[in-house]
Design a protein that fits this description.
This protein has about 240 residues and is an alpha/beta fold. It has a single domain, classed as Protein tyrosine phosphatase superfamily (Protein-Tyrosine Phosphatase, Chain A), CATH 3.90.190.10. It has ten helices and five strands, in the order ββαββαααβαααααα. The longest helix has 15 residues, at about 185-200.
């Protein structure tokens, strides 16, 4: 099972990791060095900043909202930086928190409530340079980033126990195991969200195409995570 970065890599970002090495339905693991998830790069110290730059990302995707921006993003002037908030403020204003007693309820409703912004997020990843890595982050790198990553891993058939394990490690990385449920990353939260995608949203491909992604974009999303010699991709993602 892939593990979080060892200490000293991307120093001060506690929840950063490469999403390579997961098993997939194609019989090959997800590609290393293609997609990274992390907490906010604002946490980086000087050595961590150097390591982050060395990745040479083609897209640094910031999922935070306006209210979270306390200081300029350290890569705001980098051509690869984009901020697309996961949360749609207009939809958020209509949200009824009482109808979402558990974190899994928040996640499930978020997939529909924030559909317009989620569409932009996945299209940005699909359209990023194919020969350079993508880095996705929010503040802690566990909820919005965790849900986005789970959907990407689901798309290429990573087993759900492996998706849940990657999601769950965030609370360990961040020292939140003893915190309130809303701050934790329990496996059942992400598993319940993916079951909702299946049961209520038609499955991952139907969900993403319903957001407006083309078959070509779905193919590019899958190809980013899979080695180029995974021949089965052609039949599943024929564009």
């Amino acid at each position: 099972m892939p593990q979080p970065y060892a200490a000293g890599v991307w120093s001060r970002c506690l929840n950063a990791r490469d999403l390579g090495g997961f098993p997939t339905r194609y019989g090959v693991p997800t590609a290393a060095g293609a997609l990274f998830r992390t907490d906010s790069p604002e946490l980086l110290d000087s050595p961590g900043h150097t390591e982050f730059v060395a990745v040479d990302a083609g897209l640094i995707l910031d999922l935070r909202s306006d209210w979270e921006l306390k200081e300029p993003h350290p890569f705001a002037d980098d051509p690869s930086y984009r901020r697309i908030p996961w949360i749609d403020p207009a939809a958020e204003a209509l949200r009824d928190p009482a109808a979402e007693p558990n974190l899994v309820d928040v996640y499930r409703n978020s997939l529909s409530r924030n559909a317009a912004n989620i569409s932009r997020i996945f299209q940005a990843i699909a359209d990023a340079p194919s020969d350079r890595p993508v880095i996705v982050h929010c503040r802690a790198g566990k909820d919005r980033t965790g849900l986005a990553v789970a959907l990407l891993l689901e798309l290429v058939g990573v087993p759900r126990d492996a998706i849940a394990a990657d999601y769950a490690i965030s609370e360990v990385n961040l020292g939140l195991q003893d915190g309130p449920d809303v701050s934790r990353t329990r496996p059942e939260t992400i598993l319940g969200s993916l079951e909702h995608v299946d049961g209520q949203l038609g499955g991952i491909r139907t969900y993403l195409t319903g957001l407006g992604l083309t078959e070509a974009q779905l193919h590019r999303l899958a190809s980013r995570l899979l080695p180029v010699d995974a021949q089965a991709v052609a039949s599943d993602f024929d564009c």
